[in-house]
Design brief:
Structural class: alpha/beta
Helix content: 10-25%
Oligomer: single chain
Mean pLDDT: 83
Distance between the termini: 29 Å
Low-confidence stretches: 138-154
Order of helices and strands: EEHEHEEEEE
Largest sheet: 3 strands, parallel
Amino acid sequence: MQTDYLISGAGATALSFLDVLLAETDATVVIVDRRDAPGGHWNDAYPFVRLHQSASFYGVNSKHLGARRSPGQDCLDPKFELSTKSEILHYFHDLMKNTYLPTGRVTYLRNSEHLGGGRVRHLNTGQETQIDVKKDRERGHMGQHGQHPGHPHT
């Protein structure tokens, strides 16, 4: 399998990065996620956990999370803004199913782990897949001075 980018995880940061890639490039992306569903740590949170900040500061650029505020509503008013665990998981599931996968540019490998060097193993079956990544930029692997490996300014 060949791709432009390999993203490890399908939490808020990874999906925000994916959202920008899809909006601003024609890149193809493989997402490798140890969990069964997008949402990162929200899959493991207790049911009563909510966002501790306004939903307007969370999520991805292409889709609003939470209820829309009226122009006069205080941005710190928690009445409609502190999203629940189920709302957040539904939001990420909806993004993956109805926004990202239909582009044909995203492959989502759930229940899988990246072993390094493009090797991916399915956690249930043990089957390994080799991913040929065209661009040498993996999230979380920074070079000197905070630049991604291969960045022209490193």
